[in-house]
Amino acid sequence: MNKKVIIESPGRINMIGEHIDYNGGLVMPAATNKKLIIEIEISKGNNSVVRSKLFDESFEINIDSIKKSDVGWHNYIIGVLENLITKRQVRLVNFSCVIGGNLPVGAGVSSSSSLICGVLKGISSINSLDISNEEIIQIAREVEHEFIGVKGGIMDQFTIINGKENKLILLDCSDLSYKYVDANFNKYQILLLNTNVKHNLSETSYNDRVLECSEALEIINRKKNKYKYLVDVPSDVLQNLKSEFQKNIFKRALYVIEEQKRVRDAYKNLLDNDMISLGKLMYESHFGLKNLYEVSCKELDFLVEYSTKKSYVIGSRMMGGGFGGCVINLIEKDDTEGYIKNISRRYQEKFSISLECHIIDVSKGLKLSI
Ligand code: GLA
């Protein structure tokens, strides 16, 4: 039993393959060098205490009487405890937990999964629970589905656990098989632009998209098809059934099928070292997310559209669930500084919000030290 552990839990980026994980397809995420640092220690107090340096806020938990909090981020921790106690029937010791680090919160880089996976790993360690990394991934998803109520895929949790320095992960979400791909972008680098907006529809609309995709698959399979996932449907099969669909459901399915093809092409581009083609696919992905999948917002669109006119931004798209959060850019290193200055000014003028820019290195997955 370790009395005190420190967990470095990264965020995740996704080069391409958005809203594809819960459709059973291929995605291309990576862990980031921006991470949460979570310190967890056994405590002798009557309650457990959690403090976030990021929000400058603390709260207490009575582990014998777990209940949901009205404060969103508390529930990521409470949800972990609830899952272990009620579903896995374990007894837990009281603990104190301090959360810090430099991962932007609520920005589409998966700070929520990073927190859940990190806390799970730490609590598991101080209680000597024998929980494998594979189980961490599954439990973390369960917490998000059941306690938080967001019916997300598996990409974030998988990446946070399995990320590797300088490697993108080509992950097949149908069976969790994967391969690492070199994150070698030549003279380009990854730049995240955090809109600093999170529209409150993000969680309900996310779940709506999950439902719309399963409705699309059901419509297709009603016609004697037997596709397991929407990504498996050939585009001519979808087109031939167009009249069976409501317009918006058809658009969702079309996006998913096209995006999946883009991921396959992006993988080839990376192997061929063809960054320009990879970048083009990123732009296409954005316009699919905006026009067909309808998960973008005016702030994200503004940033991507600004970059379409800059030849040194070879790829740009919204990243993550959408309705706010980040844009991911593939940008020439030498032009980054000037670009940040100009786009930040334009963004401020337009929305009266300050833009937050982060150059990202692809880094390793979650690490626990004692
Ligand atoms: C969120 C979810 C992921 C994934 C992305 C969109 O980050 O947690 O599972 O669906 O949105 O690609």
Q: What general outline do the C-alpha atoms trace? A: globular
Coarse structural class = alpha+beta
Major sheet details: 7 strands, mixed
Number of helices: 10
Which radius of gyration do the C-alpha atoms yield? 21 Å
Q: Specify the CATH architecture of the largest domain.
A: 2-Layer Sandwich
CATH class of the largest domain: Alpha Beta
Distance between the termini: 10 Å
CATH fold type of the largest domain: Ribosomal Protein S5, domain 2
- Beta-strand residue percentage: 15-25%
Output mean pLDDT: 96
Give the bound compounds: alpha-D-galactopyranose
Question: Topology of this protein?
Answer:
Blueprint (H helix, E strand, L loop, with lengths): L3 E11 L11 E2 L1 E14 L5 E5 L4 E5 L12 H14 L7 E7 L9 H16 L6 H16 L6 H8 L4 E6 L4 E6 L5 E11 L3 H21 L12 H6 L6 H25 L3 H17 L6 H11 L4 E6 L5 E9 L3 H16 L4 E5 L1 E2 L3 E3 L1
Parallel strand pairs: 4-6
Antiparallel strand pairs: 1-3, 1-14, 2-7, 3-6, 3-13, 4-5, 7-8, 9-11, 9-12, 10-11
The structure holds alpha-D-galactopyranose.
